[in-house]
Amino acid sequence: MIEAGHFAAFLALILSFFQAGQGLMGQRRAAGLSAIVAFGAMTIAFATLVVAFATSDFSVQLVAANSHTLKPFVYKIAGTWGNHEGSMALWCLVGIGFGAVAAKVMSTGRPVFEARALGVQGLLNAGALLYLLLASSPFTRLDPAPLQGAGLNPLLQDPALAAHPPMLYLGYVGYSFVFALAAAGLIEGRIDRVWARTARLWALAAFMPLTLGIALGSYWAYYELGWGGWWFWDPVENASLMPWLIGAALLHSVIVTEKRGSFGVWTALLAVLAFCFSMLGAFLVRSGVLTSVHAFAVDPLRGSLLLAGLLVFGGAALLLFALRAGKLVAGPDWTTGSREGALMGNNLVLIVATATVLLGTLFPLIAEAAGETMSVGEPYFNLTFTPIMSLALIALPIVQAWSWGKADLSSLWKWAAAFAGIVAVFWLAGIGPFDIPLLAGIGLAIAVWLIAGAAIEIWRRAKTVQRLGKMPARVWGMTLAHAGLGFFVMGAVLETSGRAHTTIALQEGQATNVAGWQLTLDDVESIEGPNWYAERATLTARRGGTVTELQPHKRFYPAAQMPTTETAIHKTGLADLYVALGDGRRNTQGETRWTFEVFLNPFIDLIYLGTILIGLGAFLSMFGRKTRVKEADG
Amino acid sequence: MKAILASLIVLFAAEGPLADPQEEARAQDLMREIRCVACENEPISNSGSDIAADMRERVRAMVAEGQTDQEIRTWFAERYGDFVLFRPPSRGIGGFLLWGAPFIFLLAGGVLAFVISRNRRTSGRVEAVAPEDSN
Questions:
Q1: Considering the entire predicted model, what is its pTM?
Q2: A496-528 pLDDT, tens per residue?
Q3: 20 to 30 Å CA-CA from A369: which of A2, A318, A595, B83?
Q4: What angle in degrees, to the nearest 10, is found between the helix axes of A159-187 and A84-105?
Q5: How confident is the model at residue A301 (pLDDT cuts 50, 70, 90)?
Q6: Mean pLDDT computed over every residue of chain A
Q7: Is A347 helix (H, G, I), strand (E, B) or coil?
Q8: Which residues from chain A sit within 8 angstroms of residue B3, using beta carbons?
């Protein structure tokens, strides 16, 4: 069975090389056909892996090392990609899938360009498949087969983390096709409006799942790690944030290329960089060069191969870029105070923010090479990344109505006064009735500013098109995404500045007051799950007329010899009451007191609401008016 | 199974928060900035290890003694090395690069962007097109 999958993966490799050859020679039909057949082959290869995991076939080495018969069925399936080899197979499947879908739907009226894009995609897929088959093959048999598997990292036995890698990979690998489009456009020296229309669609198709994938990972970290926070500036988190930031810059730059034919050089560079940062992310996570709470599978040799792939593909693209950048033409003239100028400012901020995250993530490595050890964490990013990003957020509502070429700047002072007014309101509220620190007040002002700004822009556009139904979907998409950013900032500021954390210790039957709630520990009992056992505390939480039961537990997975925290969260609508069970400690009288980490996280759902709105906005932005740009315009 | 459950029950007295809520808040802010020396990239506020518990107690004790945040950071850095601080020190060339580079990038990029945008005006007249009018 698994041998058939192994064979199918080899077939996909050969077909990818064929697709690359035909594509680069400009054969659109042949390249498209091989992309689709390669997808069929890779689907079979991946399906045999899924079946091996689903049936707990321990004669497959990967299954023996990462699965267990007692695991719930859905996590047996998810276990396919919950390990290094399987996740690389998923990477290949997604990359080949993007090529196949592109082969079906791409219609730019430029068959040679499309063929070359498919050709470059074929090369990227072939590279990934070579790495899969030669350096991390999931298709190896084990003889004799063990009777039982070694189990999955228990942290991965979780619904959010089962869905997190596929979403993240749809984003990471989605950028491989954006990269292919950029390379194809550079080969023929045409990064113009027709190119940008296609590139924008694929950049959105990658951005949406990447956004949701990061949000899933963050939500998992929030409720599974038991630390009460949702973002830790951990290297692995940063590795996914960097492609997202570059992707956001690309989405804004490509609009200028699409609408005006300008910024072509810059857009092509960002399209190349988005995938380079995705590969860098994979390298940082998989190589183990960085210590992280999320580094699940690390291996230095595989890391260096990934780095080599990054250097070969990235280097080739940048070389191509250097050769062709001079040939690209610019669009109509524009002044500093224009939509072009504003989007350039957006890109400047997002690129500097990316560079900051990169610097903060890699600096400990550089210091280590120089013989020093150091750490860069949350306080660093709060003092660098956050104020720099704030500049773009403050400017956004002001500049979003600006015209191309030259904007009407006469009302600029009104906008400045309005922003100053909102900040003043929050500042006065902060020193007056509410206890809000100044920086949190500014953060909340920015959040309100963004949401109000989105509403104002949709109102302005509605007036110009007369009817809301006539508004293009991409305008709704843009507005939703920008409002989502506002909700995200609001949630992030309220949660970070308003989080209350207390450690309490209780005996069975005891009660205590914490964060406005009365918590009573009813009992602590031992329970058993399919492949774990746990100590489960039952607490009754009371506040006013609200009574709720919380059951945080601490699981122990004997197969993996690992404990996990299962927090209990009660959502009041305004805040999360969050309880994680700690250790039981016996005092000198022989009574056992249980410690609990209790958090009150205000408005944390706004963070996820905002992120979902950004993803939804990206989705809506893919649907535009069906007007084709004429070749003569480009 | 009993043995493992028993091993989870540790024979230590529970650590308690400081009586003054403002001091406790300051101590907790510091605990989020200090790295547990025995764990993978975790601040002592989150870690369940014994050394992290000792370090937390140390932070609380120093806050209660009235030491400033900077004094407490310095004490930990001298004892465990700069590695222990998630807020890396800004001294030396390395510190200057780390803390300064983002703002230098922003400034240099801003100047560059301004110069580029000035050079975009090759002819005399620039036509303004509203965003909703561009197709």
A1: 0.93
A2: 888 888 888 899 999 999 888 999 999 999 999
A3: A318
A4: 50
A5: confident
A6: 90
A7: helix
A8: none
Give B13's DSSP letter: P
Distance of alpha carbon A100 from alpha carbon A72, whole angstroms? 33
Residue of A nearest to B83 (CA): A374
Sequential DSSP letters for A126-177: HHHHHIIIIIS-S--B-SSPPSS-----GGG-SHHHHHHHHHHHHHHHHHHH
Predicted interface score ipTM higher than 0.95? no
Rounded to the nearest 5°, which phi and psi values hold at B129?
Answer: -125, 120
Chain B residue numbers touching A336 (CB-CB < 8 A): 114, 117-118
Closest residue in B to A383 (Cα–Cα): B99
What is the dihedral sign for C-alpha A613, A618, A623, A624?
A: positive
Contact with chain A for residue B77, Cβ under 8 A: no
Residue/partner pairs of A28-31 with CB below 8 Å, 24 or more apart: A28/A111, A28/A112, A28/A114, A28/A115, A28/A118, A31/A103, A31/A115, A31/A118, A31/A119, A31/A122
Q: Using CB atoms, which residue from A333, A373, A464 is nearest to B120? A: A333
A298 vs B: CB within 8 A: no
Higher pLDDT residue, B106 or A236?
B106
Given CB atoms, is A507 within the 8 Å cutoff of chain B?
no
A359 vs B contacts (CB less than 8 Å): 98, 101-102
Q: Which of A380, A496, A555, A628 to mutate to test the interface with B (most CBs of B within 10 A)?
A: A380
Q: Which of residues 2-21 of B touch A (CB under 8 A)?
A: 4-5, 8-17
What letter does residue B20 receive in the DSSP assignment? S
Q: Which domains does chain A have, with CATH numbers?
A: 1-157 (1.20.120), 166-402 (no CATH), 403-498 (no CATH), 500-607 (2.60.98)
| DSSP code string of A399-421 | HTTPPBSS---TTHHHHHHHHHH
